[in-house]
Task: structure prediction
Amino acid sequence: MPATVKGSVVTAAYDYLRATYGEEVWKRMLLRLSYEDQDLVKASSRTLAYPVAVDGRVLAAFVAEQFEGNRMLAERELRRGGSSQADTMLHGVFSIFARLASPKAAFSRAGSIITSVYTEVDSETEAHADGTGGIIRIHGLGESSFVAPWQCGWMERALVHFGSSSPRVIERAWQAGRDASDELVYEVTF
Result:
């Protein structure tokens, strides 16, 4: 069964892109998609389980339209989007968790928080012995292009909410030049 993400999560991301880059950019991006994908994007706020593959195509089309495929610029801007979404979600859906967690506790639950918004996706977390971070592996998002920098920004901002002063998150497949990977391996330092 194909992976899905909660419609409210992608709608929040799309709202951020529209507000940040404008309606004209958003409209031009939509024209890069099939009619079927356009219909799904327009219905995202009314959708409980939104196809991850469509979200990947939206982000790929957005990067092509707005950043002309420039990966460095795309990474910087998508991290900003993930950071903004973390602020929104940590003051909303995950606000109780945000008040109770330390960076170490947040790291231990980060994989399960990410996978809680998806179906057909799982995670593994390995902490470093020194307690300063570790590895989070997410499996099942291979059809979600450009999700890695978005999630890196989300995680870094979340760690700031939990008290980290200088978190750093990188994703190995993205660093190797791949826009998508079924296994995303995040190296987290807090």
Summary: The CA atoms of residues 37 and 54 lie 6 Å apart. The chain has a mean pLDDT of 94.
